[in-house]
Every structure is written in structure tokens, then in C-alpha cells.
Amino acid sequence: MNTKLFITRPVMTTLVMLGLLFFGIASYATLPVSYLPTVDFAVIKVTATLPGARPTSTRKRSGTSFRSAGPFGVAGQDRYWA
After folding, report:
1. Other beta carbons less than 10 A from residue 63's beta carbon
2. Is the pTM of the predicted complex or chain greater than 0.85?
3. C-alpha to C-alpha distance for 1 and 20, rounded to whole angstroms
4. Could you tell me which of 9, 6, 81 has the C-alpha nearest to residue 43?
5. Is 53 helix (H, G, I), strand (E, B) or coil?
6. Are 58 and 48 in contact (CB under 8 A)?
């Protein structure tokens, strides 16, 4: 490569380097980077009906039986909502 051209023309050298720096930063900013993978959490929905029962008694009766049944065969389940 002809280094004499870059030594004798410092303004051109500076502009070329600034151009490369600008396009490098602009390209880096547009790169698609995923820090965390897409995760689909397992959801189990159970519907229980007790004809003639109030909502509070249905929740109490079904919630305790579901909690005692265990994690429903889903590995790593540690949360339960009733």
C-alpha cells in the first residue's frame, strides 16, 4: 500500500478515518443483539365448577386439592395462583 499518500495528505487521512469510525459505530448500533432468548412459560389452566357454590368456597375447596396434588408433572414449577 502506498503510505506516502497518507503521510503527505493528513486531512484526507483524518477524514477517511472519521468516515470509517462513523460507519462502524452506525453499523454496530443497528446489529440485532438478543441478550436473553425467547422463553415460553408453561401455563396450566384448570376450570372447576361446583353448581350452587359461592366463588369463595369453590376457590377454597379446589385450591387446596390442587396444591396437595403437586406440580402437575411440570418440571420446575414453583408458583401457584388460585
Report:
1. 14
2. no
3. 18
4. 81
5. coil
6. yes
CA distance 38 to 36: 7
Specify whether the CB–CB gap between 47 and 54 falls below 8 A: no
**From CA 54, how far away is CA 62, in angstroms rounded?**
12
Residue 1 identity (one-letter amino acid):
M
DSSP assignment of 8-42 equals H-HHHHHHHHHHHHHHHHHHHHTS---SS------
Contact 25, 18 (CB under 8 A): no
pLDDT digits (tens, 9 = 90+) for 21-59: 999 999 888 888 777 777 777 777 777 777 777 777 777
